[in-house]
Design goal:
Elements lengths: L1 E6 L6 H10 L3 E4 H9 L4 H10 L12 H9 L2 H29 L4 E5 L14 E6 L2 H12 L3 H10 L3 H6 L3 E4 L4 H14 L4
Parallel strand pairs: 1-3, 1-4, 2-3, 4-5
Length: 199
């Protein structure tokens, strides 16, 4: 069994890579989905977020308003650290649980943890290799503006809150270029899965 961690900057195309990998038979777990579980009412993390950020981070029904919370933390590095100190340990625990279960159920399979913050959160310690998907900055900005309906300044703010592209690429075992040729990207993902002995 092989466990890969997939990461990349905003707009790089992680969802495109995971879609290809899943179609080829890999099992993908999203750290973002694990994060949703962490934020659910009744968890210790939910209570801690409400205590730390107050009602401005909640919807009327008491659930966490992740959009509002994002506006707060992306504008202030100290607030971002405050949030990650609360939620990262819970996401890590859930990721490790998913990996452990997969090792038992599919000992010859390929597991991919999709996590934008894989390296910043040190979740790469849970995986056998790090895959980084990358694209030109202009391409990433345009994709994010179109996908999220935000302006260039908002995208730049998000990029600045993340690890630099150089540091991300320096940590990569596998680099996947995603500048628009989907057939080439599909070929490269398939090649890397085959290299892991998965077909």
């Amino acid at each position: 069994m092989s466990v890969s961690g997939l990461t990349g900057g905003v707009g790089a195309g992680k969802s495109t890579v995971t879609s290809i990998a899943e179609k080829l038979g890999a099992t993908v777990v999203s750290a973002d989905e694990l994060g949703h579980a962490v934020y659910e009412s009744g968890t210790s993390e939910h209570a801690a977020v409400v205590e730390a950020f107050g009602s401005c981070a909640q919807n009327p029904d008491g659930s966490i308003n992740r959009t509002a919370l994002g506006e707060i933390v992306f504008a202030d590095a100290s607030q971002l650290r405050r949030l990650t100190d609360i939620v990262w340990p819970g996401i890590r625990a859930r990721a490790l649980e998913a990996i452990t279960e997969f090792r038992i159920q599919r000992p010859n399979g390929v597991f991919m943890l999709d996590a934008a913050l894989l390296l910043e959160a040190k979740w790469d310690e849970l995986v056998d290799q790090v895959w980084v998907v990358t694209a030109s900055e202009d391409e990433r900005v345009l994709r994010t503006m179109q996908r999220d309906g935000v302006d260039r300044n908002k995208v730049s703010q998000r990029m600045q809150s993340q690890m630099s592209e150089k540091d991300r690429l320096d940590a990569a075992d596998v680099i996947l270029r995603n500048d628009g040729d989907i057939d080439e990207l599909h070929h490269n993902v398939a090649r890397e899965l085959m290299r892991l002995g998965f077909n």
